[in-house]
Design a protein that fits this description.
Chain A: Keywords: Ion channel, Ion transport, Membrane, Transmembrane, Transmembrane helix, Transport. Chain A: This is Amiloride-sensitive sodium channel family protein. Chain A: It comes from Streptomyces luteolifulvus. Chain A: The chain crosses the membrane at residues 46-69. The complex is a heterodimer. Chain A is mostly helical. Chain A is built from two helices and no strands. Chain A has helices spanning 3-15, 25-65. The longest helix of chain A has 41 residues, at 25-65. The mean pLDDT of chain A is 89. By secondary structure, chain B is mainly alpha-helical. Chain B has two domains: 1-101, no CATH class; 104-167, Orthogonal Bundle (Arc Repressor Mutant, subunit A), CATH 1.10.10. In chain B, 69% of the residues lie in helices and 0% in strands. Chain B is built from seven helices and no strands. Chain B has helices at residues 2-35, 43-58, 68-87, 107-118, 123-130, 134-149, 158-166. The longest helix of chain B has 34 residues, at 2-35. Classes of the chains: A mainly alpha, B mainly alpha. The interface between A and B is medium-sized, with 27 and 36 residues.
């Protein structure tokens, strides 16, 4: 028995019995798929909301704290009269 | 805007229903072979099929010309490969039903055999899908075919496995 014959025999064994598709399959699939889609939408919205809140928080903090201004030195006295 | 969305949704539902009507029989047959259940009593195969079709439904708008059948089949195969490890691992878990044609094979052998011969996926594609080298897929496929055509009596014969690995 060479390779194509063996493959054909294996195929025949597998093709033998065909199961019947359950009638409520489509409704079930749409229900589950729709739920997956809704969950994804909610997760995406939540992520955007979080991103927005984080950027607003950062902006407010930056405007209040002015992190780009050099902090006044409190170890060296200011240089005067030289 | 809302009306356009509604008509798009209706079209999408029609397309998906046609796809399910066409593909469900074949995919369910493949899933039943994978789980080694009888065609009349296949709850696990139905569950696999429902999950993979639901996944296809959820990604229907992002297919971009890709074949939905291919997508569903990929999901079915990877889901089965992931689930096989703990579904067959423990004691008293689901055992292959003796009435199934592929009952003598391991889950991995069944998966590769179904992908290669029942679904006609190329060796390289099956290997890429499962994350195995193509030679390994070839060897497993040979061994599975041999086991299928000449069912072993008693425990798995060692020489057959050794021959398949070296070829």
């Amino acid at each position: 028995m060479n390779r194509p014959e063996r493959e054909a025999a294996a195929r025949r064994i597998m093709e033998r019995t065909q199961p019947a598709v359950p009638p409520d399959l489509y409704a079930d699939v749409v229900r589950r798929g729709g739920r997956m889609l809704r969950r994804r939408t909610v997760a995406r919205r939540l992520m955007w909301l979080l991103l927005f809140a984080a950027s607003v928080t950062f902006l407010v903090w930056a405007l209040m704290a002015h992190p780009w201004v050099e902090p006044p030195s409190d170890t060296t006295p200011p240089l005067t009269n030289w | 805007m809302r009306q356009r969305q509604a008509s798009q949704g209706a079209r999408r539902a029609r397309e998906f229903e046609a796809f399910v009507a066409g593909a469900a029989g074949r995919l369910l047959h493949a899933a039943t072979l994978l789980t080694a259940e009888t065609p009349d009593d296949n709850p696990r195969a139905r569950r696999l099929l429902t999950l993979s079709l639901a996944h296809t439904y959820a990604s229907w708008d992002r297919l971009r010309g890709e074949d939905p059948y291919d997508r569903a089949r990929q999901y079915l195969a990877t889901r089965f490969a992931r689930g096989a490890w703990h579904q067959y691992g423990g004691l008293g878990r689901a055992r292959p039903h003796p009435g199934s044609p592929l009952a003598a094979l391991t889950p991995q052998e069944r998966l590769i055999l179904v992908l290669r011969f029942f679904e006609g996926v190329a060796e390289e594609q099956a290997a890429a899908l499962l994350g195995l080298p193509a030679e390994r897929v070839h060897a497993i496929c040979d061994r599975a075919t041999a086991t299928l055509l000449h069912p072993p009596r008693g425990p798995a014969p060692a020489p057959m496995g050794a021959k398949a690995v070296t070829s």
